[in-house]
Amino acid sequence: MKKLGITSGIVLSGAVLFGGIGTSQAYAESYSSVDASNAENIAKEVAKDNGMDPSKQNFFKPKSSGDYYQVEIGNKSNVGAGAYRVHKDGLVEYRDGGVESNPYHKVGNYHFSSADSNATNDSKNDTNQQQDSTKAQHNQGNTQQNQTNPSNVSQQNSMQFNQNNEQQAQAQNVKQSNQSDVQQAQTLPNTGQSSNSVALGALAMIFGISVLAMRRFVRQ
Q: In whole angstroms, what is the distance from residue 34 CA to residue 47 CA?
């Protein structure tokens, strides 16, 4: 009977020991990010590491709330309730009581492994690069849209049309000025010839009258 009692005690102690190890390993598992499947375990691990006893709490299904997961709990004693907020950056907060307006206080931070942190940083960098690329494409699209905007094309055509009209008007004015100069040059000689002819005609008349007057005088 003593041997049986000792053996049963060893088996029972081993079961408790391995059960405790399994629970500890479940909490100690490293995650690449916070999601609905691990928010509960992260909340339990951080709570345990910071002096709380999550084994006395019943955890309900996590609900996504944007930047964090809400994990409602109820005490196993059926007295009291609360909630955890597991943020995607690893921050864990706790609210005591079943009223959502009750304040949350910080419990602690879940520490991702270095590989997970690097992956998270790479993901953020990729996101920033994609945002920068999207902005560049958006700006380029705006530039092309401004260049191909019908109103802009119409304004450019109107400006070009006005410039062409101004050039044509200037060329016409120069042409008219040149024609006027040529006409003046042609008119001056003609005017001179006409005045000379009139003078010669007048002299001829005076000479004719003088001759007639002398003839009459001689006859008398």
A: 16
Length of the chain: 220
Q: What is the pLDDT of residue 39?
A: 96
Host domain of residue 44:
31-112
Residue 102, CA distances (Å) to 81, 95, 205, 218 in order: 12, 6, 135, 155
Could you say which residues of the chain have pLDDT below 50? 1-27, 188, 191-192
Instruction: Please say which residue of 146, 167, 188 terminates a domain.
Output: 167
Residues 65 and 98 both lie in one domain: yes
- The model carries a pTM of 0.43
Q: How many other β-carbons are positioned within 10 Å of the β-carbon of residue 11?
A: 10
Residues 93 and 131 in one domain: no
CB contact at 8 A, 42 and 109: no
Establish if 19 belongs to a structural domain: no
Domain count, the chain: 2
Is the same domain home to 124 and 56? Answer: no
pLDDT at 83: 97
- The CA distance from 96 to 17, in Å, is 32
pLDDT value at position 207? 82
**b or e along 38-62 (b: 16 or more beta carbons within 10 Å of the residue's beta carbon)?**
bbbbbbbbbbbbeebebeebebeeb
Phi, psi at 70, each rounded to 5°: -95, 125
